[in-house]
Amino acid sequence: MVEKAKRILFINFGGLGDEILFLPAIISVKKQYPNSLITLALEGRSAGITSLTDIIDDILCVDLKNCGKFKKYLEILNLLIKIWGNNYDAVISSGSSKFISIFLFLTFITKRFGYDTGRLSRMLLTKAVPLNKNQYAVKMYHDLVQNITDIKTELPELSIKKKPKIENSVVIHPGVSKMSVDKGMIKTISAKEWARTVELLADRGKRVILAGGPDDKEVIDVIAKTVPPEKFENLYGKTTSIKELAELISGAEIFLCSDSAPLHIAVALNVRTYAIFGSTDDKKLIPEGGCVTPVKADCDCPLRPCLWEKRQTTCEELSCLKIPAEKIAEAVLN
Prior knowledge:
Rossmann fold, six-stranded parallel β-sheet, 34% helix, globular
């Protein structure tokens, strides 16, 4: 449907992890049309995706979070103006609100692909694709391009230089984005439990390597103050970019993390991974039969998984994240 397309615009607003999950859809289109120029419209906080892949030729950054309604509309208008000046041949958007089909129509791009959000989307889009949220997010996003390409990229692919494996290593990235915490979305165990996990793994002979960025300072500080320094290697602040973090993860024998962007990096690099899951649905965030083992609490909360499914913030009790360090260490060691 886009045989003659030369310039293709993808639109996906979300965090870095979401951009990594969206990447296979872009990759499949690029493989189908290798001479095309790919532009990705995204939130500025996720622009680091360009350091992980070489298939994106240009980005259009917008700021839709933590801003008032007027500024949000202004950002959308500015995005439209940028789009109008680039003569795109096709646009693919991941948005699931009813407004998206109107926005795509206003881009005046000839070929427009998005999710089916009702009668209006079927009128305004070239193809309104059924939205199936009950599957791995990569597959959900890839549905958007099923009418454009016969190629199916099952997992994210990153353009980084892999490091040699570090013998007997467990690389741990304990944090999550500060933005999610500030919004009341708690997706990992306590810093105290992370510290106990680090010490247990070290005591069992593992070479523990700690990594993190600015958002992870609080949990890293607790670990550093609690666990004797000779028991782990602290690389906090020494991986100064998401690309450097990805390179570190590539050299890990085992990667241990929360439900966050580094998880999806590990999936793309096919690194054996153990990921803490509480309020979110692991079946939608990790591939079936892949390299990731979800580590979950033994709780019978009837709402689990609740985040995004039934509520926009986590509860105060957080019984789904009461995972003892012993259970986490045992999972990793087995």
